[in-house]
Write a structure and sequence with these properties.
The protein is an all-beta fold. The chain has no helices and eleven strands. Strands 2, 4, 5, 6, 9, 10 and 11 form a seven-stranded mixed sheet that branches. A hairpin with a 6-residue loop joins strand 4 and strand 5.
Length: about 110
């Protein structure tokens, strides 16, 4: 079955950190352009981070640049999103995407 499953979301205080995971099955993440999106309540889904296939060049939205880091573990067929210095405006459902495959999302809430 071709799918991705996100995990790692939760509630964190402003300034805190979370690491999201996206484990793929049925395809190889290193061969796909992988992306992390997020969607906040009442807002459109936005691209947060991306990683090219093979070499794995990353790119980030301006709103998260310097705070978020996308990485990949080829052995585990998993991509990650390390989120540091979290802000209340980072609150959203975070989705992993590879090709036509989308995960179910994982909720991130930043609140004191």
């Amino acid at each position: 079955q071709v799918q991705v499953v996100e995990s790692g979301g939760g509630l964190v205080q402003p300034g805190g950190s979370l690491k999201l995971s996206c484990r793929a099955s049925g395809f190889t993440v290193s061969r796909y352009f992988m992306k992390w999106y997020r969607q906040a309540p009442g807002k459109e889904r936005e691209l947060v981070a991306s990683m090219t296939s093979a070499v794995g060049i990353t790119n980030y939205a301006d709103s998260v640049k310097g705070r978020f880091t996308m990485s990949r573990d080829n052995a585990l067929n998993t991509v990650y999103l390390q989120m540091n210095s979290l802000k209340p405006e980072d609150r959203a459902v975070y989705y992993c995407n590879g090709g036509l495959v989308w995960g179910q999302g994982t909720q991130v809430t930043v609140s004191s």
